[in-house]
Specification:
The protein contains one helix and eleven strands, in the order βββαββββββββ. The protein has 132 residues and is mainly beta. The chain has a single domain, classed as Beta Complex (Metal Binding Protein, Guanine Nucleotide Exchange Factor, Chain A). It is globular.
């Protein structure tokens, strides 16, 4: 049976339904993700766009990352939460902010990126691939 994952913003206006398992779960320590998430890192899960259904109205913000490609973040115009984003480098994927899934049993990240910007007290899950 295929598992369904549902992400929402705090006010519930944006809803993202993802079918099946994500193809990637990662944590990013880059300074822009720290600012965007309001935390010391951001955790996201990616699904093929064909497995994702999005409802609600989102406001968009785009920026060019350290690798030179654009990401467009979709956030709720009512409560302000970033729920999902799309990346120019992988246009057939949708990245969902794991915190918006509100699922304590969701798997840990398997990849950690921009480790050189990681706060020294933040730990990486055992076995996760690490990239500076």
């Amino acid at each position: 049976m295929t598992k369904t994952h549902v992400a929402t913003c705090p006010c519930g206006q944006i809803r993202v339904v993802c079918e099946g398992d994500p193809v990637r779960i990662s944590m990013c320590h880059c300074l822009e993700c720290q600012k965007r998430s309001g935390s010391t890192y951001a955790v996201q899960a990616r699904w093929p766009a064909a497995q994702v259904t999005i409802s609600g109205t989102a406001t968009k913000f785009s920026r060019v990352g350290d690798e030179g490609t654009k990401a467009t973040f979709h956030f709720c115009p009512i409560c302000g939460a970033t729920v999902y984003y799309r990346m120019e480098a992988v246009p057939d994927m949708v990245a969902v902010a794991v915190g918006n899934l509100a699922d304590p049993d969701f798997p840990a990240p398997r990849i950690s990126v921009y480790g050189e910007r990681r706060h020294s007290w933040v730990s990486i899950p055992d076995g996760a691939e690490q990239y500076d």
